[in-house]
Amino acid sequence: MGACSLFGNIIWVILGGWIYFLYYALGGCLFCITIIGIPFGMECFKLSLVALWPFGKSIDWNLRSAGCLSTVFNVIWLVLLGWHLCLIHLGLMLLFAVTIVGLPWAKQCWKLAKVALWPFGTSITRGGASPAVV
C-alpha cells in the first residue's frame, strides 16, 4: 500500500469510516446468531473490512463461479438490505463529490455501494494481489 492509500484510509476513518465498520460488524454479529443468517453475516464482515480501510483494495465479481445459491442470497440481500445500504453509500458519495477534494472518497463510497447492493460472489483484493477476503 502506498503513502497516498495510507493517507486516504486515515482520512476515511477520521471522516466516518469507523461508523461504516461498526454498522456492518454489528449487522454481521446479529446475522450470525442464527444458522440461516451466517452467510449474510459473513458478507457483512467482508463489507466491514472494506468499509474500514477501502483505499488500495479492489472488488472482483466472480458471478459465474458463484453458483445459483449465491444468486438467491443476493436477491434476498437486495430486497431486505441491499437497496438501503446502497442508498446510504450513494448519498454520502454525492456529499463527498460536491468538492474536488472529496472525489477520492466519493469513489470509495461508489465501490462500497456496488458491493452493498450485490455482495455474494465478490472477492476483495489488495492492489491486484491474491484475494484478501473471500
Entry summary:
With 134 residues, the protein is mainly α. It has 5 helices and 3 strands, in the order H-H-E-H-H-H-E-E. A 3-stranded antiparallel β-sheet has the order 1-2-3.
Number of distinct beta strands: 3
Biggest sheet: strands, sense, closure? Answer: 3 strands, antiparallel
Given the helix and strand composition, which structural class is it? mainly alpha
Order of helices and strands: HHEHHHEE
Indicate the radius of gyration in whole angstroms: 15 Å
Tally of individual domains:
1
Low-confidence stretches: none
Helix content: 55-70%
Q: Which geometry do the CA atoms define?
A: globular
- State the helix count: 5
The percent range for strand residues is: 5-15%
From the N-terminal CA to the C-terminal CA, the straight-line distance is 19 Å
Mean pLDDT: 85
Pfam families: YccF
Domain Inner membrane component: 7-57, 72-121
InterPro entries: Inner_membrane_protein, YccF
Keywords: Membrane, Transmembrane, Transmembrane helix
